[in-house]
Amino acid sequence: MTENKETNQGRGPAVRNMFDAIAGRYDLMNRVMTFGQDQRWRRHVVAEAGDPGEGKVLDLATGTGDIAALMAVSHPRCEVIGGDFSAGMLAEAKRRFPSSRISWQVCDANALPFADNSFEAVTFGYLLRNVDDSLKVLREVHRVLVPGGRVVCLDTTPPRKNLLYPFIRLYLRFGIPLLGRMLAGDEDAYAYLTGSTLAFHDAETLSSIFRQAGFDRVSYRRFMCGSIAVHRGVKEVG
Question: pTM for the complete prediction?
């Protein structure tokens, strides 16, 4: 599959406004449309990121903060930064985790405001399907990781064409937008999100983009009838 050719300037503000608008209902929608499985996937992301010790971890596209909060609880010695380009999402994250030691920061994944070799791990959920150039973002992630650091990516992936494919596609195209209208009052936002799933890289293609960005030991695991994938990779040493 090819990248969306729109520039980030053209697409970014619309995506940011969409996430600002649905921030208050984002968690409820995630629980309902994933049948409660989304927290399991986030725990898997934290486990795959490993123990950063006293180092720093960046959770990009942190949204309402679930992965960042799990990381802070699982590894209390590390410093956690939750970054997102949606101020509305970050406000919701701060509301949900008011006493957390997480640092919340507005930032753009296309040009991260961090020095080279800053983080032991970088995690993100549902980031790459919402950017214009996955390779550019992954190269930025590679830059800010220390040698030997890990990247872990949770995202949707087009389901494989098997016996379940027609039912999964039906749910993605019609079921989730309907839930969006009923629970979040925004059918269009969830129609976009499901459309971005079907148009996104398949899991193998995304693995190859991770390798192009410089990551070694790239692998992935599928969830939810093959419509969710968690990719991981390691920044080479030396």
Answer: 0.83
